[in-house]
Design goal:
The structure holds 2 protein chains of 2 kinds. Chain A is mostly helical. Chain A is about 75% helix and about 5% strand. Chain B has 2 domains: about 160 residues, Rossmann fold (3-Layer(aba) Sandwich), CATH 3.40.50; about 60 residues, no CATH class. Chain B contains 9 helices and 10 strands. In chain B, strands 6-7-8-3-9-10 form a 6-stranded mixed β-sheet, sandwiched between helices. In chain B, strands 2-1-4-5 form a 4-stranded antiparallel β-sheet, with helices on one face. Classes of the chains: A mainly alpha, B alpha/beta.
């Protein structure tokens, strides 16, 4: 048979090499970068993880959630709970934070999946608020005012001594480097995992469910299961990111950990301006977000106003985000997922 | 009998769309369904495929009661369908639309279904459009995609919902040839169609539906000759 299928493009070969080089530099970054840059990079990486996971949920799964802060907060509080009450090492505790988010995600999905579209979005938000109010009642973890990680836990964290010796830095700086490396690992795992998913037949099924759920069911796609898989995966990863973010901050309060602005609104902004439904979009989006944040940080509420304005303009001018605009013009795909059939009589350059 | 409906009823509020419908389809038969707009033809399809659940009565497929089985599972047991208004997966290419159906509908890997998908695309003359996003297709191509995607699930029972509507005579003839070809391979077909000459050139049996009720079922010539049917179809030429 003369027909075969390819997802790889010529540019994607080059980008694989480039991506590996960038990853290599990022791993080695703590050896030559200052503490400020490491902290900024930590923020970028954790926001990238949140953005990729929201994109998986909304852009690929069609589940527009505005309650992601429930999983960030729950992940973070699980970490604090396990460290403070269980005496577990914070690094090990970050693994529990994903499970903590799942504990909330299962009942959330059970209720929210009865709703569609805008109702689903509002439903997830309401559930996140309920979780925040419940956590604020938890006196052992500081109630409404919050709490800090105990000094002996943060001082004796795994790997910190090794990093101190390796880079010849102070404990507090070594903690940031550790958090940065963990965030980098999480970001790489998230992107690789999503990319892998999209290239399997489940990825196609996900797109089919998003495009037309009734038709998807009629060709044998288990739409309900796809929704569950995507929702729980996203919650688990978001919980891990939440745990990591608050392990680095070492201080938590319900209002901060369950903030809809920080953990959902910014994340949606990143995905929308970058390009929803692509892996490249959130990467581009988070870079733009961080640049804007540092440029406009001193302007108070003008900062939020300009973010909103920019999001509106981009939605009108480029509904598929800046990456969508770019890849439409250039045909560039760093993470190609489209299966192209090659063979006799086929136009292969067609977009 | 590959398909048996017994006293199936469906209503939306006060509106009864399927009213005590009973009929059997032997394996390998091609059954046509006609009836005026709003007679409940598409609803009947949705009840057979599981996109809608009946309020009363039962649906049996290959002897198994599937009345409360989901659309997804009914597809896996061998019921394929096309939609009256084409429902392509718009962001996926034509080829990917078929791959979704073939891999999930038959629970096979992507590499296994490649040849089958290419084969179907050739038969439905969509092969040149294989890499085009489905949202860019013309109406005829969308209708062909509906048929191709249903075929990709390799159904034992294929339900076609007004697949010939809106096509030119030439396009219609090409479609009839494809459907005859599928039927010739032993696939049972139930076909809703307003284009009667297309329908009667394929089906061996005809069912008439009006206000959700079965008015008549049997030999196409006899059905079309009956007075009741002619009253319903007054003004429509055979």
């Amino acid at each position: 048979m003369t027909y075969f299928v390819q997802t790889r493009t010529t540019i994607s070969g080059v980008s694989t090499a480039l991506g590996a080089a960038i990853l290599f530099c990022l791993i080695l970054l703590p050896f030559f970068a200052g503490r400020g840059l490491i902290q900024d990079m930590f923020t970028i990486l954790t926001m990238l993880v949140l953005a990729q996971l929201w994109n998986l949920l909304a852009g690929y799964g069609g589940l527009v959630s505005i309650g992601q802060q429930a999983f960030v907060g729950m992940g973070a509080y699980t970490l604090f709970g396990v460290v403070i009450l269980g005496g577990v090492d914070p690094v090990a505790a970050t693994l529990c934070s994903g499970l903590g988010a799942l504990v909330i995600a299962v009942p959330t999905a059970f209720f929210a999946f009865r709703l569609n579209g805008a109702y689903f979005a509002i439903g997830t938000w309401v559930i996140a608020e309920v979780v925040r109010l419940l956590v604020a009642q938890w006196k052992v973890l500081g109630g409404g005012t919050g709490t800090s990680l105990p000094r002996d836990a943060t001082g004796n964290m795994w790997f910190v001594d090794g990093i101190k010796a390796l880079l010849n830095i102070k404990t507090s700086a070594a903690r940031d480097v550790l958090a940065y490396w963990l965030a980098l690992a999480l970001a790489v795992a998230t992107i690789a995992g999503i990319y892998w998913l999209l290239r399997t037949r489940r990825g196609l099924a996900l797109a089919a469910v998003r495009d037309n759920i009734e038709a998807a069911k009629s060709v044998g796609v288990d739409a309900a299961r796809m929704k569950w898989v995507v929702f729980l995966t996203s919650a688990f990863g978001t919980g891990l990111a939440g745990g990591l973010i608050y392990m680095q901050k070492a201080r938590i309060s319900p209002d901060a950990a369950f903030s809809v602005t920080d953990w959902t609104a910014y994340v949606i902004f990143i995905v929308v301006i970058g390009g929803i439904g692509t892996i490249e979009g959130p990467i581009l989006g988070v870079l733009i977000f961080v640049v804007l944040q540092s440029l406009l940080a001193d302007f108070g509420s003008w900062y939020l106003l300009s973010l909103g304005l920019l999001a509106i303009v981009i939605m009108l001018v480029a509904p598929r985000g800046l990456w969508g605009l770019l890849s439409e013009r250039t045909g560039l795909h760093i993470f190609p997922v489209q299966r192209r059939l090659h063979g006799l009589g086929l136009e292969t350059s067609e977009e | 009998m590959i398909l048996s409906l017994k006293n199936v009823s469906k209503s939306f509020g006060a509106l009864t769309v399927s009213d005590d419908v009973s009929f059997d389809v032997p394996a390998g038969q091609a059954l046509g369904i006609i009836g005026p707009n709003g007679a409940g033809k598409s609803t009947l399809f949705n009840l057979i495929t599981g996109n809608l659940r009946a309020n009363a009565g039962s649906v049996h497929f290959e002897g198994r009661d599937v009345t409360n089985v989901s659309a997804m599972e009914r597809c896996l047991t061998g019921i394929g369908r096309s939609f009256q208004i084409p429902q392509p997966f718009g962001t996926l290419t034509v080829y990917e639309n078929l791959v979704v159906a073939a891999t999930h509908g038959r629970n096979l890997s992507e590499t296994t279904v490649l040849e089958d998908c290419v084969d179907i695309l050739k038969r439905t003359e969509l092969i040149e459009r294989a890499n085009t996003p489905a949202s860019h297709l013309s109406l005829l191509e969308r209708k062909r995609l509906e048929l191709s995607r249903a075929m990709a699930t390799q159904p034992k029972l294929l339900l076609l919902d007004e697949i010939a509507g809106g096509l030119t005579e030439g396009e219609c003839q090409a479609l009839i040839a494809t459907i005859k070809d599928i039927h010739g391979q032993g696939v049972t077909i139930i076909w809703i169609e307003h284009v009667l000459h297309a329908l009667t050139s394929v089906v061996e049996r005809l069912l008439v539906l009006d206000f959700g009720r079965v008015i008549g079922i049997g030999d196409p010539d006899e059905i079309m000759a009956s007075k009741q049917v002619q009253e319903i179809y007054l003004g429509i030429e055979v």
